[in-house]
Design brief:
The protein is about 15% helix and about 30% strand. The protein is α/β, with parallel strands linked by helices and about 600 residues long. Strand 11 (about 210-215) and strand 12 (about 225-230) form a beta hairpin. Helix 2 (about 335-345) packs across helix 3 (about 360-370), helix 4 packs parallel to helix 5 and helix 6 (about 525-540) packs parallel to helix 7. The longest helix is centred in the middle third of the chain and has 18 residues, at about 390-405. The chain is globular and about 80 Å long. About 50% of the residues are buried. Alpha-D-glucopyranuronic acid (GCU) binds near residues 357, 478, 573 and 575. The site of alpha-D-glucopyranuronic acid (GCU) has 9 residues, from loops.
Length: about 600
């Protein structure tokens, strides 16, 4: 049995050391032949990792829970049974499915049995939308891969492990926080564990289209370019790209890396924008494989303090969102969850959302594509990560790569963020610069940012001069004047400046309010305090000359282990403009009014 370093930490005493990372990520699986494994899975809660290690913490390589063993004789000693174990729904976090698991951080084993019929010349991948945090995947007792990181998609090839008829998958999931993890030990969001997004088998031909990237050539409004990559390095393979609605078709042969590069002129292209979220059906064909996708084409760039969409300057009227399910709480994962959350953002008058602090499920991005909301996508390099630990950096790089690989064809995404509120040290800045470099290497068509904090003040002037600002296209800054810092009216005297000739997005500001709690504006957690705070904030923001966007904290109240004020927070961060039950607070209307005024002055694209 082979495991990656991360898993070895779990089974450190075993001393086995072969990596088994996931296979290259299949993109656009929604348009592939798939067999869903969603639904009830048998689940064993295993706080001591008994299914993985024996009492001496040695790896149970022969009799661990991956085997899904069943007694063959009445004398057999098998001290677990998936069949007799209760189920948990997949997708879904385990914390909100059973009261006893609300605070649970540890291991849960998932098992699913299914009938499968292998097809000739067809390869099969086990694809997971996400599993928080460490996971080991096995099919019919064979471990096929492992993964670290709770918010990105991954897949393992299972063609050889599957058989005709009855099959079973066993997945080990552990969500214990760890200092060298990404995120690390402390977060202001609930550590929802489990198979939190869709799980499916994906069928592809022997040689298939592994990856593709289509986009407008930066700085142009009608030049499309991109590449298609095969699952192997076959050269001379004809690849055809078609955009039927634009009567565009082009065939190109792959190079020795199995990649075909191409470019088109698209004179009649309608560019994607919030006002006109135009998506085109795109067809890709290579030999025995064919995939299609809905893709929008738009350009995004910066020029001095301006952010330009399709060549025109704009203001990003946004709001931050956690992947918390509206009404029922827990990890959001459905298309309806996305529709509700993004629908509230649209009601606010937003044309932009900051998906915090980790890549959200693919439904969110595809819904943003369709609804016309620009997106700030972020990886959970959050607060104080182990900056000097090479494994931590490799982990962050992998999460960033998985994020960009899955979502690079989503027109809605305009910004890749490499982190949030990270302390200014040399080790941190070196770490973050490496991530910026990786992001630029993977995608030169989007803007790179991070949520920084004020480093210096000169009287009432806040200065955004974090050294990392030099490497970013857009400065993000979080500030809490009127909540953690001073009174709401202190914003009236606050000025802002930065040595960088770059646009600023105020990526967080806000304050808490318990929906329905009313009183004077100086009553903490009253709707009136939050309302007053937003009035002072929006007036201050209007005075910042290089401000080009805002994503206040936060659209909806969300669960947090750091918020335990009884009767007010009850383990919820209450900075939402909407309660977790969809009730709009007074501040919602302050921001809506401000955005409507801003939209009224926005130039047409
Ligand atoms: C921070 C942080 C958020 C957090 C928020 C808050 O700035 O980025 O994750 O929830 O502040 O304190 O409410």
């Amino acid at each position: 049995m082979k495991f990656s370093k991360a898993i070895l930490v779990v089974v450190a005493t075993a001393g086995i050391c072969l990596a088994q990372p996931p296979a290259p990520l299949l993109i656009d699986v929604g348009h592939r032949t798939t067999i869903s494994l969603n639904g009830p899975w048998h689940a064993i809660v295993d706080p001591y990792d008994t299914g993985l290690k024996d009492y001496r913490s040695h790896l149970r390589s022969q009799d661990g829970f991956f085997q899904n063993a069943k007694p063959k004789t009445p004398q057999d000693l098998i001290e677990y049974s998936f069949d007799k174990s209760e189920t948990l729904n997949v997708p879904g976090d385990w914390n909100t499915q059973r009261p006893a698991l609300l605070f649970y951080e540890g291991t849960v084993w998932y098992e699913k049995s299914f009938v499968f019929h292998p097809k000739p010349n067809i390869r099969v991948f086990l694809h997971l939308g996400a599993a928080n945090y460490l996971s080991i995947m096995s099919v019919n007792g064979t471990v096929v891969c492992d993964h670290e990181g709770g918010f990105t998609s991954f897949n393992c090839e299972v063609t050889a492990a599957l058989r005709e008829g009855e099959n079973f998958v066993v997945i080990y999931v552990n969500n214990q926080r760890k200092a060298e993890g990404v995120p690390t030990l402390s977060t202001d969001w609930w550590n929802y564990g489990g198979l939190t997004r869709d799980v499916q088998l994906v069928e592809v031909p022997e040689r298939f289209i592994q990856d593709s990237f289509l986009h407008l050539v930066p700085g142009t409004l009608d030049q499309i370019s991109g590449w298609v990559k095969l699952s192997d390095t076959t050269s001379g393979q004809k690849i055809t790209v078609r955009i039927p609605e634009l009567t565009l078709e082009k065939s190109v042969l792959t190079d020795r890396a199995g990649v075909a590069e191409f470019s088109f002129s698209a004179a009649s292209l309608r560019r994607w924008s919030p006002e006109q979220p135009k998506l085109y059906k795109v067809e890709l064909e290579s030999g025995s494989d064919r995939v299609e996708d809905e893709i929008g084409f738009r350009s995004i760039e910066v020029r001095g303090h301006d952010i330009l969409l399709n060549g025109s300057p704009l203001f990003l009227r946004g709001v931050s969102i956690h992947e918390e399910a509206p009404y029922r709480s827990g990890r959001a994962y459905t298309e309806d969850d996305a529709k509700i959350l993004l629908g509230w953002a649209k009601e606010l008058g937003a044309n932009f959302v900051r998906l915090a602090h980790y890549p959200h499920n693919e439904h969110m991005l595809r819904m943003a594509d369709r609804m016309g909301l620009m997106v700030w996508s972020e990886i959970p390099v959050y607060w104080d990560i182990k900056w000097d630990n090479p494994a931590t950096l490799a982990n962050a790089e992998t999460q960033l790569t998985e994020n960009i690989t899955r979502d690079k064809n989503r027109a809605s995404i305009v910004i890749w963020s490499v982190g949030n509120e990270t302390p200014v040290t040399d080790a941190r800045t070196k770490f973050m610069r490496s991530l910026v470099k990786t992001a630029r290497g993977l995608d030169s068509t989007r803007l790179i940012s991070a949520a920084l904090q004020v480093q210096h003040r000169d009287g009432s002037t806040r200065i955004i001069d974090d050294p990392l600002g030099a490497d970013l296209d857009v400065l993000g800054c979080n500030e809490y004047i009127g909540w953690y810092e001073g009174k709401p009216e202190d914003a009236d005297k606050a000025n802002w400046k930065s040595p960088y000739d770059k646009p600023l997005i105020m990526s967080e500001f806000g304050g808490g309010a318990r929906y329905g709690l009313h009183g004077a504006a100086d009553l903490r957690f009253s709707e009136e305090w939050q309302e007053d705070l937003y009035k002072h904030q929006t007036a201050m923001l209007d005075r910042i000359p290089f401000l080009r966007g805002t994503s206040p904290w936060i659209l909806m109240d969300f669960r947090s282990p750091r918020r335990m004020l009884p009767g007010i927070q009850d383990f919820y961060n209450r900075k939402g403009l909407v309660s977790d039950q969809g009730q709009k607070k007074k501040a919602f209307y302050v921001l809506k009014k401000w955005y409507e005024a801003k939209a009224a002055h926005e130039p047409e694209y």
